[in-house]
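Entry for the shared binder. Reason: the reviewer on the internal report wants the predicted structure included alongside the sequence.
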Amino acid sequence: MPKLVNYEERRRELALAAWRVIRRDGVEGASVREVAREAGLSTGSLRHYFRSQPELLTFAMRHVMERVERRAAGVPRPAEPLEAAKVVLAELLPLDEERRAENEVWVAFVARAMVDAPLAALRDEAYDRLRGACARWITELRPAGADEERVLETERLFGLIDGLAVHAAMRPGLATPDLLSAVLENHLEQLVQAKPTGTAGEP
């Protein structure tokens, strides 16, 4: 009796095959033919799941976003806000092989998004979600801060996380997991310890 294949599970497996090709050959090398070869399928079989390279790449990029969000949402959170922020936000940094693979693929997609409208839309969606998450953490960590201060601190935290991820992809030998963790934790601790410039809504 032939083995039944879960359609969505196979699509996720093919997305991972695309990631492997992208890490090795770049986004330009992730053709339908090359990804099919990486997955051990014929080109015709892969087209049963993805009709074109743009469809495959869009799914593979969204798969990065979904995996990161699921992991961050599922990590056990300490009760104390500062410790919770450290644990959750660390899930967004490439601190192990799984996250390093996601990060390298994500950076490759972001570069491709400069000339690819569907990928650019996904990039913007992901960055809007990250900025929103940063805003929520700033509100929780600095509840007495003025509105303007919260906006600035949100952008600073957003830029820190994104910048660390890019540095890790570009110079992994220098931007080590220990260094990334230390920079994030130091920033969050200073954020909590700093005296608020005012209360929300004050001029």
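Summary line for the report: Confidence is low (pLDDT under 50) at residues 199-203.
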